[in-house]
What does this fold into?
Amino acid sequence: VYAGLFGCSSGKIQNVKLEDSYIRASTTSPSLPVYASGICGDNVGTITNCASEGNVNANSTSGTAFAGGICGYNGNGKTITNCASEGPVNATTGDKIVYAGGICGRNNFGTITNCVSEGPVNATTTSGTAYVGGICGDNPGSITNCVSEGPVNATSGKHAYAGGISGGNSSSKTIITNCYFLENGGLNGVG
It folds into this structure.
């Protein structure tokens, strides 16, 4: 299930601004992942000079959920550059993995550069694993020159990972350079 101004894109998205939006992706199927974001649910291309101001919600009763202010999931080798997100980002699931980030839910060996997130980011799972970050929920890729301002909360009955920039850095190739978390509401992980 994909939701965003663009559900899934393999092309170039640039110079787009989304205002006063409400984006929601939801499913009850355990076999379907959910991708939600302001600009692009699943990015396998490039996103440049974009902004999103609004609510983003990814909800699954028992599947994996990805939510981001700009992109839910950023694919291998793909890029998000010069983007900004303002507004709440929320992802929930029952017993699977949940990813939520102010810019991107999961940056899967991609690159995030020169981005700003201002807004609360929350990931909740009953018995799965929650990854939440001010910029990216889980980052096996690269994040450079980014700023996060807003509360970050991860809640799980199992494992919860919360970070001002990234909740998880799940690769030996992970790079985070020149990034800042300006505590404005706190950082919380329960699990």
